[in-house]
Amino acid sequence: MNIKNLWTLLLAALVIGSGEVVAQSTQYNASITPSTQHNTITPAPVVAVWGEESVDLCKGLSLYIAAEEEDAVRLEAAACDMGIELRSVRRPARKGYLNLEVVPAAELAEIVDMRYAEEGYVMDITAQGVSIKAPSAAGLYYGLQSLAQIYETEGRHTTCHVADAPRFGYRGVLIDISRHFRTKEFLMRQIDQMAAVKMNRLHLHLTDAAGWRLEVESYPRLTSYAAWRTPDTWKEWWYGDRRHVDEGTEGAYGGYLTKAEARELVAYAADRYITIIPEIEMPGHSDEVLAAYPELRCTQQPERQGDLCIGKEATFEMMQAILDEVIEIFPSEYIHIGGDEAGKSSWKECDDCRRRMEEEGLESVDELQSYMIHRIEEYLNARGRQIIGWDEILEGGLAPNATVMSWRGEEGGIAAAAAGHDAIMSPHGYCYIDAPQDAPYSQPESIGGYLPLEKVYSYEPTPESMDESVARHIIGVQANLWAEFIPTDKHYEHMLWPRAIAVAEIGWSQPEHRDFALFRERAVRIVDDMLERGYTPFDLKNEIGNRPESLEPVEHLAVGKSVSYLYPSFYYAPQYAAAGDATLTDGLRGTWTYADKRWQGFLGRGGVDVIVDMGEVTHVESIAADFMQICGPGVFMPCRVEIWGSVDGENYELLTDIEHEVVVDELPSFKSFGWEGSADVRYIRYKAHRSKFSGFLFTDEIIVR
Ligand code: ACM
Ligand code: ZN
């Protein structure tokens, strides 16, 4: 059913329903736009009709739960967490009640036709009490979260009718505990907050080069060795010797979840209707496995290449034994098997890999990886599980039942969906919340461009232009928090919240109910509440916002003037062309990120060397351009800038020659290199030299005044 029709249906239900419902309809102001009058429920619900009456329910309610025993225990715990005095009863009370009832979806006409009605709920708050009905206990749990949010925001309960269900079935967060280990307790705290915003999947990145983080009895060196290193921080380790050490070594940093802890975590998440999806990386990102079990290396494999040898049967024996233990701990339908960023080069040289390719008729190393993923899928399918892999598992042929997690963009997810596979969207441009969320100088060291809450929120997993046959297979969305630069709990929470809440709303709310201004208002409140509860989210109230220079077009004498480039040494890199030849005089300044199609990137040996033709001899008093530096991805300031002027385009006069000492630093920086004086010129030559660090030069505009 079309969502808009839900509103009509709701009104119809109020009019034609039972006497009780008709009586209620007089309490509600039917002219109110659904879900916006009281901006309290997160994610924004499908339908919320608010009454005028404020009711005080906190004095004590009779809690009646109709659900399976295990769920009843969970729901009672969740209800008791809300700060309402409750008394459990065996029959629904007539007054002063909180009734939680699992009912057949068919009884919930407003949501029954929604794809994920199973997780939906219908809630009525009246002067008599609160009734929540849902097709599943998860739906009741979500209804309770909405009830708690209304109370927390308003300090009272307003009579209302809410009919709600998620837009997507998969609403996830990835937490990387390999690069920096995080404890069970830390993960539980994040699970609490995920549950409060109705997220339902926690993807645990348990294994990677920097540390293996799950006890495996059959391969004990994974945790007695591969889980430990001496430098605490990933950065020191990665740029150092990248070695592991034995557990118990003096000064060793690391850790892992024991099986008992992992089980406890699974149960804790399940109590909050969250499924934990473990990720066991293969065949790439497996340096730590090879460090512990070097016999799984390819022959002649360079030490810093972390791909498992696919030619050796021992690799399969090991991965299967690990997965046997993993599925015993994690009951999730999905097991994530990684599949991303394998280097693949050692496979070409390895006798075992070459033999495997010959025997199996595999024509490329992509097909060799695909062979492994197919085999692992078969192994897990036979044990009742399904695989998820990063979008690289499309290369060389997708395993028949695999679900694809699209990270390099959306293309992988779309291709998988078009081929009839399910896909989960986590494109890095929107969902990689390891990028800074505010002015980079105000943020801790991080990876990638500027990713503020608003940009995350703007993500649309299934735009209208997407074919319905493809959209049907996009089952959800996930925020990914990689932890290379995140050594502490506080820093971790700072990166995670509130951006993960934006992903929760993308995953739950219908596009027509998504409104950034309203969302931000709620996010600020949630952040304040989290701060009060001792979390360390990014404090949205203090957001600085985008680079001020980028907010308005800049007026100057060279806007629209032609720029000529020296090809190829001084030409811009095709992936950072921005607006091509027009970029440097288009009046648009760059934002905090070089990936914004405003900054132009130069990778050629020479750096920047361009000539701006002013069209006629022009009196100028200043010429300047900005550069940025972000050392991580190799973006550096120039070490020297020359600015020349010419009347005839043949004879140039040097206006300024600036030397600049380029120093590697942690935080992104921005700097203008320019000349001020007085000259009459038609042609301006702006030349910026690359430093000894080479990498990229990025500039956004040559401003002439
Ligand atoms: C990934 O970011 N390599 C999945
Ligand atoms: Zn090999």
Describe this entry's structure for a reader.
28% of the residues lie in helices and 24% in strands. With 705 residues, it is of the alpha/beta class. The protein folds into three domains: 3-164, 2-Layer Sandwich (Chitobiase, domain 2); 170-210 and 244-542, TIM Barrel (Alpha-Beta Barrel), CATH 3.20.20.80; 548-704, Jelly Rolls. A hairpin with a 2-residue loop joins strand 5 and strand 6. The longest helix has 18 residues, at 137-154. The radius of gyration is 29 Å and the shape is globular. Acetamide is lined by residues 340-341, 390, 407.
What is the alpha-carbon Rg in Å? 29 Å
Structural class by helix and strand composition: alpha/beta
In the CATH classification, which architecture of the largest domain applies?
Answer: Alpha-Beta Barrel
Please give the alpha-carbon distance between the first and last residues: 59 Å
Strand order, largest beta sheet: 8-9-14-15-16-17-18-19
Number of helices: 20
- When the domains are counted, the total is 3
The largest sheet is: 8 strands, parallel, barrel
Look at the structure and give the CATH class of the largest domain: Alpha Beta
Any idea what the CATH superfamily of the largest domain is called?
A: Glycosidases
What gross morphology would you assign?
globular
CATH-defined topology of the largest domain: TIM Barrel
Low-confidence stretches: 1-35
- Per DSSP E runs of 2 or more residues, the count of β-strands stands at 26
The level of helicity is 25-40%
Mean pLDDT over the full residue set: 93
The amount of beta strand, in percent, is: 15-25%
Bound molecules: acetamide, zinc ion
